[in-house]
Amino acid sequence: MDRWLGAALEYIPSWLSYQVEHGQQPGALAAVVQRGKVVLECAAGQADTGSGERLTPRHRFRIASHSKTFTAAGILKLHEQGKLRLDDPVGRFVPGLHRKTAQVTVRQVLSHSAGLVRDGADSGAFDGRHPFPGTDELRAEFAAAPIIDAGVRLKYSNRGYALLGMLIEAIAGESYAKWMSREIVAAAGLRATTTDMPLPRGTPFVRGHTMHLPLGRRVPIRGDYRMAAVAPAGGFVATASDTALFFNQLSPKTRQSILSPASRREMTHRLWRNPGSVVEGYYGLGTMSGTSAGWSWFGHGGSLPGYVSRTLTVPDLDLTVTVCANASDGWAHPWMEGLLSIFRTFATNGPPSRRVAGWRGRWWTMYGGLDLVPMGNKIVVGSPYAWLPFADTTEFDLTGRDKGRIIAATGYGSYGEGVRRVRDKAGRVVEVWLGATRTVGRGRAVGEMKRRLERKRRS
User: Fold this and answer.
1) How far is Cα 380 from Cα 393, in angstroms, rounded to an integer?
2) DSSP-H helix ranges across 250-330
3) Alpha carbons 435 and 195: distance in angstroms, whole number
4) Distance (Å, rounded) from C-alpha 286 to C-alpha 276?
């Protein structure tokens, strides 16, 4: 593992914990895998705000549309085995389809370019208003024509991936769950992943939570429903680390994988740009892709009521990150951007030298916390409440044991001013001054704020 990466991993749990508390989110999970090894697992907050159960990395999470990548890997596995071609019409394997649906290719369904309906005529199963459909119900739906012509544009379809599940069953001659569990999940070495509910008795499971609005409070969501025939599109349940391990195996450069390099390149190749979006992004065969923090990535996202998750793999670093938030308005997407920005900042500046390493810590003012984060031969001042904690930040170098000078800041900062640490009689650092700004430990900040606010209220 690169030394800069190790330094970044030391900072991430503290930043993520601050984000959960500051944003009043129920909880967050994160896992980082590099070159096939889990190098970080961390959790913050609660698995269930109703019971107060603490969230841990061992809790399993509904990873929702990440399931599509697993299903796509299953299709590519069958392709490698010579049991289908990606340009075969799906009607060759699944009978009873509308003639236009029967003509769309496996590749078009995988890439969401088959023109199929997104969620049928009523997406109420996602809101808990009725159960998810079984195979017979889906067959009746697929007797209707596609919504638009195939090969025109990216048109996301959960029903399309349910159709791919039916295709797998038709070729394998057994259930989707049984075949995928053996040929993909177990083959990838994943021990905490299932294709759908229910989970084995006693398995730690994260409860989802509603948004704060419109009720004015969050309410736990059980989240243990079955997605039935739609499981190939969104039913998977896994730990964050299992999810990251799987996506890390899909990098074309990785040495160990359930798929050949050719299949992995096929899956992660950019086929369709997301139309109508201000953020440039693409879809391949069961994978999303784009560029963040200057790095090209592939991965997927997922959301179900109470759950939001995102996974990105940066092939140039052989690095995969998974983030999960257990609320419908969870910050998994901005947290991912923040994590990549943290990696980029450490990669640019390098790990801390011995000279500056002892300055690491979190200090507080009336406005919140500030992080002193040593990198290279300087200290970077991070904003742990921000999604991009090192954007437009202040930096200082040292001029003595407890002194420094601000060498980088925006025009509104304290560029050129001094930095100093104040110690008590025992030699412990109790204050840090950044220019004219005094910062203290959290306990002291709380005490001072209470005294000042209570005095003002009494007067």
Assistant:
1) 7
2) 261-268
3) 55
4) 20
The answer to whether the beta carbons of residues 210 and 308 sit under 8 Å apart is: no
Q: At what angle do helices 332-349 and 3-22 cross, to 10 degrees?
A: 150
Q: Find, among 297, 300, 334, the residue nearest to 319 by Cα.
A: 297
Residue written as tokens 């569990």?
181
Q: Angle, nearest 10°, between helix axes 67-80 and 158-172?
A: 40
Residue 426 CB neighbours (<10 A): 6
pLDDT band at 379 (very low <50, low <70, confident <90, very high): very high
Q: What is the pLDDT of residues 163-176, one digit of tens each?
A: 999 999 999 999 99
Q: What is the pTM of this model?
A: 0.95
Band of residue 206 on the pLDDT scale cut at 50, 70, 90: very high
At residue 20, φ and ψ (nearest 5 deg) are: -65, -45
**Which residue type does 115 have?**
G
**pLDDT for 325:** 98
Question: 87: closest CA among 69, 112, 70, 104?
Answer: 104
As given in the structure block, the two tokens for residue 434 are 């950044």
Specify whether the backbone of 311 is left (phi greater than 0), alpha (psi in -120 to 50) or beta: beta
The three-state secondary structure class of 407 is strand
